[in-house]
Amino acid sequence: MPHHEPLWSDSVYPLTAYLIALTGSSLGLSCARRVQLMGHVRGRGWLTGGAFSLGTGIWGMHFVAMLGYRSSDAGIRYDPVLTLLSWAVAVTFVGIGMLLVSRHTTRRSLLFSGLLAGAGIAAMHYLGMAALRMSGRRVFEGGTVALSVVIAVVAATAALWATLRLTSRTARFAASLVMAFAISGMHYTGMMSMTSAGAAGAERAGGLSPISVVVPLTIGLTFIVFVVSFAVLMNPVGDLARELARQQVAPAQAGN
Question: Any stretches that span the bilayer, and where are they (predicted)?
Fold first, then answer.
């Protein structure tokens, strides 16, 4: 049977995918900073916004990047259930990681949260790959798969560390740039691990076309970015910190 390596078209898809990952990372870290400041109970709205922003950004990066995927099988389609499940996994695991690190700021908690969130990112990627409907048998090289998982875990841990340690807006944006690069690196490392073996032109089952996945993804991501960005701009970290300080001082003054 012939063995087909994946090919990639022009650079517009990787660049667009990186910008999506950067947007999700930037908003996710901004929300995570507010969760850390307010606590996981009072900051549950920020926790939700951060999980949706970062999780959807990672998921969107994957499927936009996949628009550039080329193989001898020209009719790639996606299983709708696995595609949706991959999004749910990304949002859920990122959210759990953010929740855990906001409750316990120890090094052990950071490492565990990063491991959990990174595992979710990797699971999203490989569920997205499992959603591919294409002729031939997919083969994954174990060492490269393991490397992609390590990259995902390191990226998630670094992002959560940045949430705890970096307070300036410039530092968090720099962390977002690095995280988006790591997310993209994880995706393309994971893609390097896969080859397809089989006869081109074999009959394929139905499913979603790449465009039918990306169009609603773009609409949904745009909505999330608009809502979360508006909330972030209307609630600067400095204002929230001052408000919390006033709320803590008021009961003490009343007691006196």
Answer: 12-32, 44-69, 81-101, 110-132, 144-164, 171-191, 211-233
Tens-digit pLDDT profile for residues 190-218:
888 887 665 444 445 567 777 788 888 88
Identify the helix (H) or strand (E) that includes residue 140: strand 137-140
Task: Give 130-173 pLDDT, tens digit per residue.
Answer: 888 776 677 888 899 999 999 989 988 887 887 777 777 788 78
* Alpha-carbon distance values, 236 to 43, 109, 122 (Å): 14, 27, 32
Cα 151 to Cα 207: distance, rounded to the nearest angstrom:
30
Q: For residues 174 and 162, what is the distance between their CA atoms, to the nearest angstrom? A: 10
Secondary structure (H, E, C), 18-56: HHHHHHHHHHHHHHHHHHHHHCCCCCHHHHHHHHHHHHH
Tens of pLDDT, residue by residue over 53-108, are 999 999 999 888 888 776 545 567 888 899 999 999 999 998 888 888 777 777 88
- Give the residue numbers spanning the domain of 175: 3-255
Q: List, as own/partner pairs, every contact residues 207-214 make where C-beta atoms lie below 8 angstroms and the sequence separation is at least 24, other chains included.
A: 207/77, 207/78, 207/79, 207/80, 207/133, 208/77, 208/78, 208/79, 208/80, 208/83, 209/77, 209/78, 210/63, 210/66, 210/67, 210/76, 210/77, 210/78, 213/63, 213/78, 213/83, 214/63, 214/64, 214/67
